[in-house]
Amino acid sequence: METVTLLALESSCDETACAIVRNGREILSSKVSSQIDVHRKYGGVVPEVASRIHIENISIVIREALQEAGVTMDDIDAIAVTVGPGLVGSLHVGVMAAKTLAWAYGKPLVPVHHLTGHIYANAFVEELKFPLLALVVSGGHTELVIMKEDYDFEVIGSTQDDAVGEAYDKVARVLGLSYPGGPIVDKLAKQGKPVYRLPKVHTENPLDFSFSGLKSAVMQSIKRCERLGEEVNVCDMCASFQEAALEELWSRVEIALREREVRQLILAGGVAANSRLRELTVEHMKKHPGISYIIPPLAYCTDNAAMIGASGYIAYKKGIFADLDIDADPSLEL
Ligand code: KG4
Ligand code: ZN
């Protein structure tokens, strides 16, 4: 088999990342420089600050990734880069760096959609089996995607308002917790019980999602406690929100598994790092013995460049290349 070594770049939000990936499966190195400590001071990602820090860090992560992989640019077959969706200024830094490397070293440029990266992070565990259903859950997206084959994406459900990761972050903020809220809510929920009653969400298309009502219900519940002079039990509120949010996700997955004939279910995106979602997935999938499932490794759930290398490899094999005049596309569709 021909060996294909990609240098992959990711800078769509607040992580500056570079990875060297061989044949889409073997991670020779994966460097992620996180800006979380900076954005935490502001309670969320500040786009202008994010792009400035990407500029400072991109050359560093590229150098470190090459060094750790023990390769030089001569060993690289192509440059894969996230071209969208994401924050335009942040994406721009990665795309410019990728174009510069492609031009300077005469390498092909492979454009990658960020969500396909999250999806192909599963290929680090085992080969994908088609047709499959992907539950894509991140800070910017909540989608159900059917794939009949490599690089064939049919979105069958998506959020009508907030993404589930965004809801985690907003709920954490109203509870006075730090940013990003997802991992903290996940941790505190383990010490609480889902005793607060929160409404079930209905959407016109039963495969769509909606999280803004749930977030508002949490806020109303907190206000009610304040009116009654009761202290909010933060752990119980985290558990209540989390159970309601994950029940919403899984109710849609169950419908999709019933309606569509798939051989595999995969989780994708930052919220796939959630310990309760991972647990629920194992539990629910016991009811579907004929369908296999993959839960991506924790380190490759949140933004990283290795996943861009995994998706970029498939694009490379399919001959999907970009010219040097390609631009970042903040609202790129799947
Ligand atoms: O995929 P990702 O790194 O960036 C985007 O593409 O958006 O996802 C980030 C999101 C954030 O909203 C973060 O709070 C959430 O993933 N997240 C989690 C957990 N870890 C990260 N949400 C729930 N539980 C977690 N353990
Ligand atoms: Zn992401």
CATH architecture of the largest domain: 2-Layer Sandwich
Spell out which ligands are present: 5'-O-[(R)-(carboxyoxy)(hydroxy)phosphoryl]adenosine, zinc ion
Number of helices: 10
Low-confidence sequence ranges: none
Q: Return the CATH topology of the largest domain.
A: Nucleotidyltransferase, domain 5
Overall body shape? globular
Integer count of domains: 2
Main-sheet strand order equals: 3-2-1-4-5
Going by CATH, the homologous superfamily of the largest domain would be: ATPase, nucleotide binding domain
Q: Over all CA atoms, what is the radius of gyration?
A: 20 Å
- What is the CATH C level class of the largest domain, in words? Alpha Beta
Question: Can you offer a commentary on this structure?
Answer:
With 334 residues, the protein is α/β, with parallel strands linked by helices. The protein has two domains: 5-120 and 301-317, Nucleotidyltransferase, domain 5, CATH 3.30.420; 129-295, Nucleotidyltransferase, domain 5, CATH 3.30.420. Helices cover 41% and strands 18% of the residues. The protein contains ten helices and ten strands. The chain has a five-stranded mixed β-sheet with strand order 3-2-1-4-5, sandwiched between helices. The chain has a five-stranded mixed β-sheet with strand order 8-7-6-9-10, with helices on both faces. Helix 3 (88-105) links the parallel strand 4 (78-84) and strand 5 (109-113). Helix 4 packs across helix 10 and helix 5 (164-174) runs antiparallel to helix 8. It is globular, with a radius of gyration of 20 Å. The structure holds 5'-O-[(R)-(carboxyoxy)(hydroxy)phosphoryl]adenosine (KG4) and zinc ion. Residues 114, 118, 138, 269-270, 303 line the site of zinc ion.
